[in-house]
Amino acid sequence: MLKRLRPNGMEYKEFYVAQSTVLKGTGPVKFDYRDRHSSLADVDHTDKGLQA
Fold it and tell me: Per DSSP, what are the bridge partners of residue 10?
């Protein structure tokens, strides 16, 4: 997992990126993906919208 910084980001200032070589679900929802990535960020949603 890599931590990435975006000091001038509109939606978030930092996020984490993870990569998988195999992502497979064998339960009721079946899927089989290879070489995928995803990102995760902590964001603050307010009544005035998304706050960076």
Answer: none
